[in-house]
Write a structure and sequence with these properties.
Helix content of chain A: 25-40%
Oligomer: homodimer
CATH architecture of chain A: Alpha-Beta Complex
CATH topology of chain A: Nitric Oxide Synthase, Chain A, domain 1
Strand content of chain A: 5-15%
Bound molecules: protoporphyrin IX containing FE
Number of domains of chain A: 1
Strand order of the largest sheet of chain A: 1-2-13-10
Number of helices of chain A: 11
Radius of gyration of chain A: 22 Å
CATH superfamily of chain A: Nitric Oxide Synthase, Chain A, domain 1
Number of strands of chain A: 16
Chain lengths: 370, 370
């Protein structure tokens, strides 16, 4: 409950773990005394930058649906707790995306994706807080047409309509980047158009099928979830967008493939000339593989970092090994960890996991889901 | 606990459900009185043939790992509770396989697979009982060679060794059907060789790749699980082998594909000439699809009933709809229901299930697992 005053026990548990794991931070006891007093006086407390960075990394480590956790220590944590106005927040969102996509500095390569989190002001008990309405910082609009069909991403239809109600006008194309809707207690909701340099995109081609390029498919390079609440030691950060790099199947086996998303499998199958008269020709399976080959190949071709589900499965098993050596069990949700294609062909399929809810962590609140 | 006396409450719950669903059986009250007296006198009770058939069908309906439950009412229940000697049991196992495979009668077609269960004597509290050591009635042997490699099914290596210790000699080929090991309290364990007519098999060919036939792959037509205990109304049937027809992925995406089974994916990929230098060419995924096409195509070609994972996913969702109309929720285990390939391309992927343990049901005991 983000309205309640911080539970000191939760703060203490986190701080003991944090100072236990980071001997350079010194003794935890004086810090605990300060935090206890802060909570008594204000209902909450303020993390030091070290605590924040450690907490965000451990929140990633505890994300039981994430297969990409091997590199949890490498998360870049941007402390944005002083941002207040929508303009400030938006400028820092743009900085986040440029840094994540490698388009921020002259000495970095566009496409050298880095895992980044931007942590905006924490919630104050009982007070309204800033948030972003978008589910991801970069997503494509979906427009329902008169025949009931959808141009763009069907998942975004409702969100796109609310953007229109707020005055946004999209081009009406299949891959229109949505505006970022930032709501603050003082300014209400404001829409911002992402600049081109913040939105690295990859046009999709296939290593063998020349016709594939003509489908006009593309996808953005940086998956940045913006509707989850980060919780560290009892403190809630309702606005803390984070990104990794893509695993190909997220694009090729879900976003572009799901029947209630871009639904490209039948189109690809038709172009491949497959016999779609009955399911047992496995035309869906064949088209799905080619769609996914196109995704991985296209990203690689233009030098944008992406991973495949076989590699990521091996890495996740390596992560489990590392964690075991550190005396920790990896909480994991089988149905999210096992990739949505060729499940049985990946190592992560052939075992069970414990699905425990460890803190710090990321949470999707009911109102963010809406 | 199969040693304990039957819990009357469990018997009553089952009988009320059974008589409630089958009005032709009349009132349950007199039956309950009889059962209560039987349990008091003997520690257990005896099902009528109607109760047995209904209980076995509902056990299938309650099998939360089974995607094939749409046809639960059609299960053929063979009452084999009078069989005592290993010879009797084996003869009835052969009858089961012939009936299941459509090779039993002149007027049926070989390959017209039917779901069948043979129910052998129930366990008597505290007394030893007959069982079959095999995990399935038909499985292939696995032989470890001097280099540590395996000919045949690696999963069967330990079982094959124990068969050898008991005097069995296999041909040493990749697809040697194992003997059936039947243990009874009075006769110890005895091995029986299945006759040819009980073992319908399908040689695997590919609809396009002529070289596929030369891999010499084959698989049996009837998957008949023989190590699970059937529990109905507190009564345990430790020997109750049952079969359905295959879903292609069980053979093409697990038995022939898993690295610790026949591990054919790299072989097929090599024959296809795929670039296996890195995982992101998705050579595993492509070879896996072709292996599965071969399975489905080969069975269809020779008229042996088999289903594909797309069709079976749709049927399972239909089953959920039927059950909802009957006021029942379908217990299901996501990680078993979602097929091991193209998971996201099937409807069953895109929802959650309740994983409850309803009775009657099938259970895998620890000693059967060994
Ligand atoms: C570095 C590369 C990364 C890869 C390859 C990766 C991979 C994935 C994948 C494949 C999923 C499942 C997505 C889906 O099926 O919708 C996922 C979920 C998730 N990941 Fe990661 N991830 C990465 C980085 C991160 C980072 C940096 C964080 C947080 C700091 C994170 C936190 C999460 C969370 C919270 C979820 C669950 C999202 C939800 O519930 O919708 N991941 N990840
Ligand atoms: C009629 C066609 C049938 C189909 C297509 C079918 C399909 C399946 C599949 C694909 C699995 C998962 C197997 C695995 O991944 O190892 C399964 C498991 C199971 N099925 Fe069915 N099934 C059928 C009939 C039956 C029947 C007749 C019964 C019992 C009377 C049954 C009971 C079960 C049980 C108990 C399991 C779990 C086995 C375990 O825990 O290892 N099924 N089924």
């Amino acid at each position: 409950d983000p309205d309640a005053s911080v539970d000191f026990a939760e703060a203490e548990e986190f701080l003991r773990m944090c100072y236990g794991d980071n001997s350079k931070l010194g003794s935890v006891e004086p810090r605990l005394a300060v935090v206890r007093a802060q909570i008594a006086a204000t209902g909450t407390y303020v993390h030091t930058p070290d605590e924040l960075a450690y907490g965000a990394r451990v929140a990633w480590r505890n994300s039981s649906r994430c297969i990409g956790r091997l590199y949890w220590r490498s998360l870049v944590v941007l402390d944005r707790r002083r941002a207040r106005t929508p303009e400030e927040i938006f400028a820092l969102i743009v900085r986040h995306l440029c840094m994540a996509g490698g388009t921020a500095a002259a000495n970095r390569e566009p496409g050298a994706i880095r895992p980044v989190i931007s942590v905006f002001p924490q919630a104050q008990p009982g007070r309204p807080y800033a948030r972003i309405w978008n589910e991801q910082l970069i997503r494509y609009a979906g427009y329902r047409d008169v025949n009931g069909g959808v141009t763009g991403d069907p998942r975004a239809v409702r969100f796109t309509e609310s953007m229109r109600d707020l005055g946004w006008r999209g081009k009406g194309d299949a891959f229109d980047v949505l505006p970022v809707a930032i709501e603050t207690p003082a300014h209400g909701v404001r829409l911002f158009e992402l600049p081109e340099r913040a939105v690295l995109e990859v046009p999709l081609v296939h290593p063998e099928y020349a016709w594939f390029a003509e489908l006009g498919l593309r996808w953005h390079a940086v998956p940045a979830i913006s509707n989850m609440r980060l919780t560290i030691g009892g403190v809630h950060y309702p606005l803390a967008p984070f990104n990794g790099w893509y695993m190909g199947t997220e694009i090729g086996a879900r976003n572009l493939a799901d029947p209630d998303r871009y639904n490209m499998v039948p189109v690809v199958a038709k172009m491949m000339g497959l016999d779609t008269s009955k399911p047992r020709t496995l035309w869906r399976d064949r088209a799905l593989v080619e769609l996914n080959r196109a995704v991985l190949w296209s990203f690689e071709r233009v030098g944008v970092k992406i991973t495949d589900h076989h590699t990521e499965s091996d890495r996740f098993l390596a992560h489990i090994g590392n964690e075991a050596k550190a005396g920790r069990e990896v909480p994991a949700d089988w149905s999210w960890i096992v990739p949505p294609m060729s499940g049985g062909a990946t190592g992560v399929f052939h075992r069970y996991y414990r699905e425990s809810d460890e803190r710090p962590n990321f949470y999707l609140d009911a109102d963010a889901r809406a």
